[in-house]
Amino acid sequence: MAEHADHPAYPVGLRLSGRRVVVVGGGQVAQRRLPTLIAAGADITLVSPSATPAVEAMADAGEIRWERRRYQDGDLADTWYALIASDDDAANDAASAEAERTRTWCVRSDNADVATAWTPATGRSEGVTVAVLSTDAQGRDPRHSAAVRDAIVEGLRDGTLAAPHHRTRPAPGVSLVGGGPGDPDLITVRGRRLLAEADVVIADRLGPRDLLDELPPHVQVIDASKIPYGRFMAQEAINQALIEHARAGKAVVRLKGGDPFVFGRGMEEAQALAAEGIPCTVVPGISSSISVPGAAGIPVTHRGVAHEFTVVSGHVAPDDERSLVDWEAIARLRGTLVLLMAVDKIGAIAKALVAHGKSPDTPVALVQEGTTAAQRRVDATLATVAERAAAEDVRPPAVIVIGDVVAVGTGAAPRPAE
Known about the structure:
- The protein is α/β, with parallel strands linked by helices.
- The protein folds into 4 domains: 20-119, NAD(P)-binding Rossmann-like Domain (Rossmann fold), CATH 3.40.50; 121-168, no CATH class; 173-283, Cobalt-precorrin-4 Transmethylase, domain 1 (3-Layer(aba) Sandwich), CATH 3.40.1010.10; 290-410, Tetrapyrrole methylase, C-terminal domain (Methyltransferase, Cobalt-precorrin-4 Transmethylase, Domain 2).
- Helices cover 28% and strands 20% of the residues.
- The strands form 4 sheets. It has a 5-stranded parallel beta sheet with strand order 3-2-1-4-5, with helices on both faces.
- The protein is globular and about 80 Å long.
């Protein structure tokens, strides 16, 4: 076998769709590499007497063919690309030798020095594939390649890295982006990228405000709470602002706290845009109903404690004729109750739950400014929560959790059933 270690690898993209690929070995390496080969459309044959459950599932699903045996000479016939990744050194050497004879590009997971091909650290973002290979044959460091890959992909995803004269121009329209519960790191990758590409951002008060400081100077940032309402109601004024900026050919992001469709009135905005024929993209966000309790150490479900959780808007009191909540039915549930927008109504809500049969000793936690540096947690029971919220001056935004899961982290909750 000829030595080529003194020269750097020649980078190339293989088009494997419909072409035969052989993988020798069904262990962890195959488990990591097979999904990408499947996505490339390769005609894959796995040769291995055993496989991990994940690899076996790929075979059961018909994504690969599995020859349940050891490698045999001739297995690489008519093969375009081979991945040698078994724990049998003799089989790996024999398969590698066959690949050399048949001029089949071959990756060796156990010995890169004798391979004819190396697998780069790869990542993808919006139609771009990034592949990083070390150029130093004597000092290859896969961890360094992966770190470089991650930095490039992250820059492409969040918009901080792009060729100045070839930056993709987003199409005019509106993106309804869920910004998450408050911590700027909890917005989705797609949401952050759309922010970086926006011409206009119309932001809620509860959106992740720190992200607005990252926007380029040319981006127009509009505080939704300060839009002049005139003859419009607040939501109608926001809808109109979205429509006007989109019609002007701008890429508009409507940055909302949490998820756009969890008490965020996102569907009202989407419907208004659809009525005007304006393209609308919905980017889901991490809802505060789950993330804020989690950040405070409270699981909304827990084995043996709660098998369901219910999220309720508390902006309307139980005795208000506008309320759509069946509080009597809610009180009968045994799981977790999560209240949003309920700080000023918690006294009335607690009273209604107890009146409908909920124990006054049911644990309650109020988590203010969840996931941010100002986060704080106040614990109480249904009997004491109104007094505690007032004494501790709990203010919006706060998520209120009611149920035995509140005490799980303190050791006071029932032990999970085995």
